Amino acid sequence: MKHSPAHRAFTIVELLIVIAIIAILAGLLLPAISGAKARAKQIKCVNNLRQTALGLRVWAQDNAEKYPWSVPLASGGSAGSADWGDNFRACSNELSTPQILICPTDKTRKPAPNWASMAADIHVSFLIGTNATENLPRLILLGDRNVSGGGGGLDPSWSSFLGSSIDAAWDKELHVRAGNLAMADSSVQSTKTPELREIISAEIASGVSNVVLSKPRGIF
Q: Exposed/middle/buried for 159, CB within 10 Å: 0-12, 13-18, 19+?
């Protein structure tokens, strides 16, 4: 009676070869997976900015073409409020949920459960362009908050006296030295530092004497 031969075990060399192949495949796949996740977050950020910009425009159309920060608190806007979050809370009916005020790459911010508990320094990823108006559709309305330069602080600014010396830059906090901007016409642009500087320069050239980008903050 013949017995079937015993199954041959893997040698150490064969095991090492298998492990090496798995490591190579993982090295090829992981960057692709990471890149896909980054693209998904980028798309989500753009969509959130666009939805927010559209909501702000709807509100402005009912308020003499002005955005909340240009309308007094007593008239339903946010001008004069000590709570920066009122810039968005004023048009909460048009925005529907505060969760769209978050960039998914922002690891230090989280979505607010509701408008009443929304705190801008915790629940908002987007800055506002205080010069934005419905009448000038190519001005910055919103953008990722990771902008540096302009004197620093929470209200970086660039005046017409700077000429071509615009030092605005995207830092690495959110989109790795890049960022998204929503313009007053609700279009959204994904930009790097050179494009950001060109947009600010174009805003100054359009007649804005001092471009101010106001970053989210707590109650003061």
A: middle
How is residue 12 written in tokens? 């150490």
The contacts of residue 78 (CB under 8 Å, 6+ apart) are 68, 69, 71, 86, 87, 89, 90
The CA-atom distances, in angstroms, between 165 and each of 126, 157, 187 are 25, 12, 26
**What pLDDT, in 10s, does the model give residues 110-150?**
999 999 999 999 999 999 999 998 888 899 999 999 999 99
| Residue 77 per-residue DSSP state | S
Distance from the Cα of residue 17 to its chain's centroid: 45
Spatial distance between the Cα atoms of 176 and 13, rounded to a whole number of angstroms: 42
Whole-model pTM: value is 0.82
Per DSSP, helices labelled H in the chain are 12-61, 86-89, 92-95, 120-123, 193-205
Q: Residue 67: in which H helix or E strand, if any?
A: none
Instruction: For residue 62, give both structure tokens.
Output: 């009912």
